[in-house]
Amino acid sequence: MELNIVCIPGDGIGPEIVKEAKKVLNRVAERYGHQMKYTDILMGGASIDVHGVPLTEEAVATAKAADAVLMGSIGGDTTTSPWYQLPPHLRPEAGLLGIRKALNLFANLRPAVLYGELADACPLKKEISAQGFDMLIMRELTGGLYFGERKTVEENGIRKAVDTLTYDETEIRRIAVKGFTIAMKRKKKVTSVDKANVLDSSRLWRSVVEEVAKDYPEVELEHMLVDNCAMQLVKNPAQFDVILTENMFGDILSDEASMVTGSIGMLASASLNDTKFGLYEPSHGSAPDIAGKDIANPIATVLSAAMMLRYSFDLDKEADAVEAAVQEVLKDGCRTVDIMSAGCRQVSCSGMGTLLAERIR
Ligand code: IPM
Ligand code: MG
Questions:
Q1: What is the 3-state secondary structure (H, E, C) of 318-332?
Q2: What gap in Å lies between CA 5 and CA 41, rounded to an integer?
Q3: What is the pLDDT of residues 206-219, one digit of tens each?
Q4: Model confidence over 337-351: pLDDT tens digits?
Q5: Which residues pair with residue 270 across a beta bridge?
Q6: Residue nearest to atom 2 of ligand 1 (CA)
Q7: From 49, 120, 227, 316, active-site residue
Q8: 3-state SS class at 245
Q9: Is the pTM of this model over 0.70?
Q10: Cα separations (Å) of 77 from 38, 53, 84, 257, 321?
Q11: Is the CB of 96 under 6 A from ligand 1?
Q12: Cα(106) to centroid(ligand 2), Å
């Protein structure tokens, strides 16, 4: 089959890790008889440097015409990069928010898994990490505070800023359906996270989620307040299967969840719309401090490419092969510096990509 993929190398370590993911995908194509067609587009700082804006209409049109988008990372050092002297709508992150909205990528899947081989990196107490965990955060991605009306005004000499948190029931229903659908393929539990003791948007969230739950009688539903969830993630992460939540809560909780795995360089993500189309990117950022040094961990991007094979192309066998290659390389004791531990062999970013590609069967 022909896979028409748009790549966004982006900024910082982005170009390096996307290069390694392509190496692995090319091997998959060879082994399984597919044709990969890649088209690069600019986004974030890379686009600002060339076009003066973080995302052009042309880039959006190119992405729309593809089957899927594979992204590295965007953004720079917010204190030193000139990109952050620009007004907010022209900064790198505006490109990412822009493409999410333009492609209607409302469902953001962020798996957080504790890898057995990397359990030592988990910052939690041994008795907690020993239970292991495998959760998926289903974050709403095109609504809420991120896309509500905002303004900064001055009233009677006092500066005032307003951000608005809005959800309508259709936005909540479609993400809830995604959450329950994926729970059916997992451990059949949904924890819906909100702040229903304070926010109207959360009370609506809760009632719509309960309506949707009626269509999935096999799935256990529980509601949890977001502050409690933040606590439970470090106290007992094994209790979670699918965490279903709105945009801002999902942003914060997914960083926390990835931190407790101890290996953020390993975590993939997918942003999906109502079709098979998706944008796939590692959960980590652009790490400008280590860019260009060939030491970044490409595994999160490689695993994002596996999610792309699975969700956008229905190529489950190929996705399994990529995930198996990752497991095997870890088992063999190969590590990039971020996950290095005593007795293992340290490899570079490109070295890791090569090892993974070699293990595609
Ligand atoms: C993320 C990032 C983005 C977000 C930033 C870069 C705008 O933190 O993907 O989690 O807040 O959504
Ligand atoms: Mg974030």
A1: HHHHHHHHHHHHHHC
A2: 11
A3: 999 999 999 999 99
A4: 999 999 999 999 999
A5: 109, 280
A6: 251
A7: 227
A8: strand
A9: yes
A10: 29, 18, 8, 23, 36
A11: yes
A12: 15
